Each structure stands twice: as structure tokens, then as C-alpha cells.
Amino acid sequence: MSALESAESSSPIVTRAVAAGLRGEYAENYPLPAWQRAALLVLGALPQAAARFALSRFQTLSGLPPERLDGFRIETLIGERLADYDGLPGPFPAVTVGAALGGATAYLSLAAGGPFLPQAFVVSLKGGAPDGDVRRYLRRSLDLARRLAAADPRLFTIQHYDPIHDGWLTRYVNHLRFKLLDLPPAYAAFLRERLEPGGAVIFLEGGAQWLRYRVGERSVFQVGGWGGIPPEEFLEGSERIRAYARRAGLKSSDWKLDEFPLERGPESEWGSEPGLGEALEAFCRAEGFRFVRISLPHPNDFSRLAFAAALRLLEKEGRQPAGTLIEMFSQFDAAAALQTGLLPLWLVFNTQDSLAFLQEMRPRFPDGKPVFFSPLATFSLTPDLVAWEDWQAALDGLAWVNIGARRSHYPADARAIVRWAAPLRDWAARNRRPIRSRLTAEELRELLMFDRPQK
Description:
13 strands, alpha/beta, 9-stranded mixed β-sheet, 2 domains, globular, 4-stranded parallel β-sheet
């Protein structure tokens, strides 16, 4: 039986990347069958508009039928992620648990020398809202979300509807996210078996907040997602959102659900629900492991910490950085950074907030060294999308190499899904100089003093 978890979910992308990095290998973030890779390369030869149209229609073929979740147990998704580490030697000095913040989490886990175990999991179910009707999307999996949460008190369910950043997906599939509220037995067993005596459990607690509707005791519905559009604007509307809806052919941009209580809580993808951290801390006390909580309010804070960790590792070895690696969302390669001594800077998305973060961090790039930049292929022309010219201006004066979407096709470059990492890995093969040192959990925590924006 094929995997249940969505290919777009951060959790499997990060766990596969960490497992590959621990083996000294590269990971294919999207392990596509040969026919899909060939089809994407063909689409990549088409003009941007044609590729975007074809890719959006392709989503009608994806998504699980809801009946696949009959008899669902979270242990199935947990088992899929633990299987990513099958065959790896151990024990490990540390295991990282918590928020799967893309390349930042992957690099921090590898810098600590151990696996990553996610708190959140996502399944994509057939059926979305082609016309932008929020209630149509809500009904797709509301009963299922409530039923699965009621059946397992360890679970929190989130229906996530972002018709802008995920617009090419939400027309045809609906996303149901599960978050752990307690330590599952399979994670406890993994820690006992694979963690060194007295080893460290590093809990990454994401503090990102968002508005959400309470639709059940442990079930919420989130409209919108992280980027350059605040949560209030998704619900109250604006001229730029209405203009986007018209261009996208959506009949509705009214995404309020006034029949449900509105609250502010952990963001669906980058926020951590309480419970798991507390359970991990109690487990570590009982088992003799060290527990280190790294709690940060913004996804960029974890990226800043990973950048600082890379600098600290190089300092330990008396080395200078080989350059800078700027990556976005799922287009990241933490193993390449560790194999070459590049400084990793992970950006959440191709939106205005990420551009501001890049501009903030640019003064920390090593002078005279190459910069690899991975503009994200998303197939959505969002109101907060960073124009190519603005990325170019932010990198002006640097010797940068494009390893992502091509300027001619940005952001709808199907070829980039298949080949984005090829130029980076070609360079890495010629400049291989692996970092051998690792950081303890306590050293990572000490780096939080660095992990603040410079005034």
C-alpha cells in the first residue's frame, strides 16, 4: 500500500532529508516515479502559463479517497516516518523532535548528529473547492476530522485551507493535518533504542500564531497560511485578495465562517500545539536523557539558528565558510551544506516576508564567496509573491548562481521540481569538504544569543 502522508507535507521531506544526510547521501525531496519526472521535464519546456494550467489539472489525479482513512490510526503515519531511518547505525548523541521547519530543522538535526521526529503529519484527500467556496472545502473533511480527533485524545486535527499560496492544490484536494499532543509509544521506543545513554532530546517548539476557527474539541479550521498576507486579511478581505480571486477564476473570496468561534493559536504548519513537549520532558527525566527545549516565536528564528550553527561548526574546525546556500520551503539540501561548508539560509516561501528576511541576513554572508539561490516553483501568482526583479535586487553585487526556478518560468517552472538541485550538487562534487564536527544540544541552545535580528 502506498504511503498515506501527502507528498507536499514538510514532515516526510524533512525526515527523508535527515536520514539521507546521516548516511552521507543526498535526498530527493520529491521522490517521483520516472514517468512523472519525464512529464515534468516536458512541461518545463512549455511557456509558464501552459505549465501552470497543466500542473493544476494534474492535481485531479492526486489525493486519497476519504475511505482510505477508515480505521485510521496515527501509528500508521508515525511508522512511515520512523521507517525513513531503517538501517541507520546508532545509537545517536541526540534526536530532534517537533516542528518540521524545512531546511532549518533538517540542518539543526544533522548538526546535532541524529534523526528528526515530527509532531505534525498531513494527508491530502480528494476534493477541494474549485470555486473558492470555503464551506464547500470545510465540508470535505469536517466530519472526518472531528471523528478522528474524538477517537484519539492524543490527536489534534486541522483542516487547512489556503486558497492563495496553495491555490493550485486546494481546487482539487483538501489538506487534513494531525498534530501529536502526547508522546506516542513508537517514539518512546525509538528513543530508548536509538539514543545514547544520557543522550539529548532536542524539542523544536514553533511559536508561530494564526487565526483559526474552533470546529471541535480538538479540531480547528485555518484559512490562509504563512507569507506576506496577515491572517486578518484572509478573513476580512482586501482589494488585492479580491483581485487575486478574479484573476484565479474564484467565485468567492469571502472565507469567513461566522458560525464557529474564532481564536488565535499555533499556526497549522509552523506552530506547535502544547502537550508533546511536556510529555517529552517527563519521559527524559524518567529515562535519564537530557531534554533541551528550543522555543522560538517565528519560523525565521529557526533559520537564523541553523545559520549560526553552521558558522559554529566551521569555527570548531578552524575553517571559513565556502559560501551561502539560500533555499525555500521544500527546495533545500542540508546535506550539501554539510558536505561543503556552505552556510544554509532557509526561507519559508517566495513571499515578501521572506525577501525581508533575506535582506536582513545578507550582511552576514561571507565576502567574495559564491551564493546559491533556489527560487521556489509554486505555480501560484499570489498577491504577496516576490517579483524576480526584487530577488535580483536583493542579491545585487553577489556572485550568485540560480539553482531553482528559471527567470523565464518563475514561479511556474515544472523543470525545477525535478532538476533544481543539479547545479548545486555538481558544484558540491567539485568542492567536497565535509564538516566532521557536531554540536551538542546545549551548544545549540547557547547559540540562541546569536539568534536575534541585528538592530
